[in-house]
Write the C-alpha cells for this entry.
Amino acid sequence: MENGEKLMAIRAGIFGDSSHLKDRYVSDHKELGKLVKFLKEKGMKIVLTSGSFDLLHIGHARYLENAKSLGDVLIVGVDSDKKIKDRKGSNRPIVHEEERLSMLAHLRSVDIITLKKDSDPKLNLLKIVRPDVLVVSKTTGHTKEKIKEMKSLCEKIAVLEPQSETSTSAKVRKLHIGGAGEIIKKISPQIEKVLQAALTEIEKD
C-alpha cells in the first residue's frame, strides 16, 4: 500500500475528518466491546469519558480535546435524555440525545460515541471498555468508594479541571432568568393599571 493510500485509510471511518456519525456512533455495547478489543490488539491507547454534553460549549470542546491528548482513541459515553432528566430535573436536557450525539461527532477529538441509558447496570460502560485512561471532571464529585471501584476497572484515572468559566447549568439559569425578565417587562404595565384602578376605588370609598 502506497503512503497516500495509507493516509486515506487512516482518515477513514472513526478517524476521518468529517463527522461520520454512522461510523462513530456505536449503539450496541457488545459491538463496542469487540471494537475496543480490536483497537487494543493494534496497540492503541484507549481513553474513556462520559457526560451529558447538553448545550455544547467551549468548555466541553476543550475538555474532550484534553482527554484525547491522553491516548490514541477517545470514547465518549453520552447520558440519555431519561438519565439526565432523572438526575437534573424535568427541564433538562435542553438538547435531545440525537442532536447531542450528532454534535459530538463533529468534534475532531471524539472518535467513538455511545449512549448511556438509565437501564444500564452500574459502571457498565467502564466495565466494557476497561480503558487505559478514564477521564473524569473535578466538578463531578465522585465518592472515595466510587473512585476506588473505577480504579479497579482501568489503568489510570485522570481528573480534569473545568475548562471554562461557563457551564451548561449556568447557561440554563441565565436563559430562565432572561425569560422571566421579558415576561415581567410585558406584564408590568397591566399590573400597574390594575393597581391604579384599585387605588382609585379605595379613594372613592
Notes: The first helix runs from residue 3 to 10. Strands lie at 46-51, 73-79, 112-116, 133-137, 156-160.
